[in-house]
Every structure is written in C-alpha cells, then in structure tokens.
Amino acid sequence: MKTNENNAREKIPITAENLHELVASIPKEQFEKGRAKLDKLMAESHKFWEEREQESRKSEDTSD
Fold first, then answer.
1. Which candidate, 1, 29, 3, 25, places its Cα nearest to that of 12?
2. Where on the tree of life does the source sit, at the highest rank (predicted)?
3. According to the model, what pLDDT value does residue 46 have?
4. How far apart are CA 58 and CA 14, in angstroms?
5. What are the backbone angles phi and psi of residue 52, rounded to the nearest 5°?
6. Per residue in 2-20, pLDDT tens?
C-alpha cells in the first residue's frame, strides 16, 4: 500500500506527449472545485472593478 502512496506522490515531468494522460488522471472533483474557486474570485474581481469605475465616474462628475 505504501508503494502506491509513494507512486502517487512521485513527480512526473510534463511533456507534450504525456500531457493528455496527466490531465485525464486528475479527478473530476478536483477540476470542479478549482473551477468553483476561480469563478468566485472572478466574480469578486468584476465587482471590485465595477465599483472602482463607478467611484471614478462620480469623482469626474464632481470635479467639473
């Protein structure tokens, strides 16, 4: 059993020839969790920049 654990932790060099195999070996749940995290971060980023743009417009309007 320890042999399997060691093999799982073994670092495999990524090449163009084995990239598809490495990606296929990643559990689907890991991709879904990663995508959910990225979606959340992107939503926060969009909200931040929208608020910043609105503040910028307000300051431009008051400076006239």
1. 25
2. Bacteria
3. 98
4. 50
5. -65, -40
6. 445 555 668 889 999 999 9
pTM for the model? 0.54
At 1 the pLDDT is 43
- Both tokens of 49, joined, read 């920049």
Tokens of 64: 């006239």
- Whole-angstrom Cα distance, residue 14 to residue 25? 13
* Cα–Cα distance list, 20 to 9, 23, 25, 32, 52 (Å): 19, 5, 9, 18, 41
- Write out the residue range of the structural domain in which residue 41 sits: 2-63
User: Helical H runs in 1-64?
Assistant: 2-9, 19-24, 28-63
Q: Domain count for the chain, please give it.
A: 1
